[in-house]
Write a structure and sequence with these properties.
Helix content is about 30%, strand content about 30%. By secondary structure, the protein is α/β, with parallel strands linked by helices. The termini are far apart. Bound molecules: S-adenosyl-L-homocysteine (SAH). S-adenosyl-L-homocysteine binds near residues 87, 91, 105, 107 and 133.
Length: about 210
């Protein structure tokens, strides 16, 4: 179930469904998604579906992880990247293999702790973790070349836009019952917004959970 062959099949399917960035496909092929799930769910790890990780949260669908990562890297390398919504840590692990440094914020403490252990086990050391409400980003470490949110706000928090470096881009699902991925690029003149795929994410929620 967790064999190399099932992973190959998943990656072939992602390529068929339009993922073009070879580096992203290679990282998805080599990252053990089953380690980011409870044992009861692990046998479904290489299906292209979102899966529950507890606390009413989900590990995003592989196609969505690949697509968001591809959009983030589209305009060139991203050295410092902020992630909102660590969750299982799977998207974090993918990013950590493609950029220099990842700063990741999660509001639910036990999820963050588990993610931290998994990434340590995979020897991914270029990640810094923060237990906080991601609406406010992580200003002390900004600005960022890229920001990726894996939870959806109704409207984009101003703080995230302000923490983008010039040339930086934000990839974020936006909306309530109908959501779209948005890609916001910062230039010296202002912000340029592109609306891409229809998606379905858990909401960006206020406050933190111990
Ligand atoms: N990238 C994750 C997806 C997790 S689902 C993965 O691959 O597993 C979205 C995550 O965003 C959840 O863990 C949820 O707790 C978190 N989240 C929601 N609102 C948040 C907020 N305001 N600040 C930080 N994290 C938040």
């Amino acid at each position: 179930m967790t064999s190399q062959r099932t992973r190959e099949r998943l990656v072939a399917r992602l390529a068929e469904q339009g993922i073009r960035n070879q580096a992203v496909l290679d990282v998805l092929r080599s990252t053990p998604r089953h380690l980011f799930l409870d044992e009861a769910m692990a046998h479904r790890a290489y299906e292209d579906i979102a899966l529950p990780i507890g606390f009413q949260q989900t590990l995003s669908q592989p196609w969505v992880v690949a697509r968001m990562t591809e959009l983030l890297l589209e305009l060139g390398p991203r050295n410092r990247v902020l992630e909102i919504g660590t969750g299982s840590g799977y998207q974090t692990a993918v990013l950590a293999q493609l950029v220099d440094e990842v700063f990741t914020v999660e509001r639910i403490r036990p999820l963050q702790e588990r993610a931290r252990q998994r990434l340590r086990q995979l020897k991914l050391r270029n990640v810094r973790y923060r237990h906080a409400d991601g609406h406010f980003g992580w200003a002390e470490e900004g600005p960022y070349d890229g920001i990726l949110s894996t939870a959806a706000p109704e409207t984009i928090p101003e703080e995230l836009l302000q923490q983008l470096a010039p040339g930086g881009c934000l990839v974020i699902p936006v909306g309530g019952s109908a959501q779209h991925l948005q890609v916001v690029t910062r230039s010296h003149e202002g912000f340029d917004t592109r609306i891409v795929d229809a998606v379905r994410f858990v909401p960006l929620r206020p406050g933190t959970v111990k």
